[in-house]
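It is worth pausing here to work through a concrete case rather than discussing structure prediction in the abstract. The textbook approach is simple: state the sequence, then state the predicted structure, then interpret. We follow exactly that order.
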Amino acid sequence: MFLDDNPDYQTVWQLAHNWADADPDKTDTNAISPKLRENIIRLVLAIRNKKISARTRKRSIFIDDSVISLIVDTPHYLKTLNCLLKDAINKAYLDSLYVKREEVIELCIRSHYDPPSCWMPKYLPDGQIVTKEAKNYRPANEIEDKTRCRAIASTLWELDPTIHANHIARSKILQRIGNGAQYDISTITDWIAELDPQKDCRKPGRPPKPQYVIKFEMIPPSKK
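Step two, the predicted structure:
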C-alpha cells in the first residue's frame, strides 16, 4: 500500500512522538508527557477542524459535513472527542490515523509552530516560520495559544452551540490544553467571540447557569 514506508505520511501516534523527540514504542499511555500530549491534542484538533486531512489505511475521514459522512465517521468523532475531553489516549487508534507531510508543514507555518524535525524543510522562504518575541509582558507564543483556543472553542460549539463564550473561556480543557491560564478571561472571549454560532442572539449580561449537552469543568469566575 502507498502508506507503507512512505516518507510523506506518518500516523498521529508516530508524528506526535517524533515531534517531541520521543520513542513511539516506549511510551506508557498512562504516563504521557506534557509535550507529547500537547502534540497529540494539536494534531487531533487540526483533524477535527479540517485544517489537515487524515485517513486510515482504508479511506479518508471527515471529508465533508454531509449526513453520510457524519454517519460513517461517527466512531472517529467519538474517539477523537474522548481524546480531547477525557484525555483518553488510545494508542491503537492514533496509530491508525495517517496525516500528510505537506499539510502538517502548512499548519505549522500558518500557526507559527516549530515543525517536526523529521519533516522540517531544508529550505524555507524568509519569514515563513518565525519565533514571536514576548512584548508587553504577553506570552511569547500568543499566536499559537490563540489558534489553539479558537480550535478548542470551535470543537465545543460543534458539539453544543448553546455554550456561552465565557464558559468556554473558563473551561478547564481550554485553560489547560489551550494554555488559557496565561491570559485574562476577557482576552480569550475576544479571541473566540466571532466563532460563537449564537453570538447574534445572546442576551447581554451575566451568562445563565449552564445546562449543556456536554459536561465540562470550569474555573470559578473569581480565579481570573
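Step three, interpretation. The CA atoms of residues 62 and 69 lie 7 Å apart. The chain is about 40% helix and 5% strand.
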